[in-house]
Amino acid sequence: MAGQRRNEIGRAVPLLAPAYLWLTVAIFLPLSAMIFFSFMTGLPNTGKPWSFTLQNYAAFFQEDIYWRLLLSSLRLAAEVTFWCLIIGFPAAYALAKLLKGRMREAIFLLIILPFWSNGLVRIFSWAMVLREGGLLDTTLNAILPFKISIDLMYSYPAIVIGLVHSYVPYMVLTCYLTLQAIDDSLIEAARSLGASRWQTLRRIIVPLALPGVIAGAALIFVPVVGSFMEPRILGGRTGTFYGTVIEDQFVAVFNWPLGAALSFILLAVVLVVLALASPVLRRATS
């Protein structure tokens, strides 16, 4: 058995080595540098004297603006995840159980279309739709018998709309995979035994699709917490969140140590959230 195990490991190492080498170079080395920067008073390449300190992490607890923005970012991520679920789950169910053939392929194409364009293109497209005199405002005034003014730019709803548009495909795809794996005979058996559509959905479809829902929620929640492009462009002054503050530290203020410390605090909070959700994950996948 030991010899067989060594042979299996020997065959797996050449296949795993490129992936782990890439992860080491592209992820772990930059993270190591960021950890080093987060404990510094300044950058070594500036020529100024520097030393190690914990003040960058202490600033998060001393300045209430940082944890208030973090709470706002967590709320934004939860809200975007909720709307992605509300929009994505019915679409995934229709793709998995209702649509067939070319119609399914056409809907899939529309769903993954956001992946084919640059993120900035999507955001500025929404800016042209949501601003006063934009596409939405012009269309509604052309249809309605009375004049209205719709200007959602630089508002919280505009941020949510932009983020939902960017991340809802993740929810659709993950839910589709789990819904597609549900045997249709289970649904037919429930209906033949007198279960209503709501009972079938609540007691069969949703529990079996829960792993896909949770996977999609994780894929959406984690990046949205630290998002900064959509809040910056679509939110304006109201788009100040934890991710935008981190971006300012690196780009505008050039305070990399503080930006690195705030980034790792965000990473720690996300890991805590995932750890708290792990019992649900284990029950859903068991």
UniProtKB/TrEMBL annotation:
CDD domains: TM_PBP2 (cd06261). Keywords: Cell membrane, Membrane, Transmembrane, Transmembrane helix, Transport. Its main location: membrane. The keyword Cell membrane applies. It holds the Pfam family BPD_transp_1. One of its GO terms (biological process) is transmembrane transport. The chain crosses the membrane at residues 20-40, 76-95, 107-129, 154-179, 200-222, 258-281. It comes from the Bacteria. It is found in: Cell membrane. Residues 70-277 form the ABC transmembrane type-1 domain. Belongs to the binding-protein-dependent transport system permease family. CysTW subfamily. This is ABC transporter permease. It comes from Mesorhizobium denitrificans. The lineage of its organism: Bacteria, Pseudomonadati, Pseudomonadota, Alphaproteobacteria, Hyphomicrobiales.
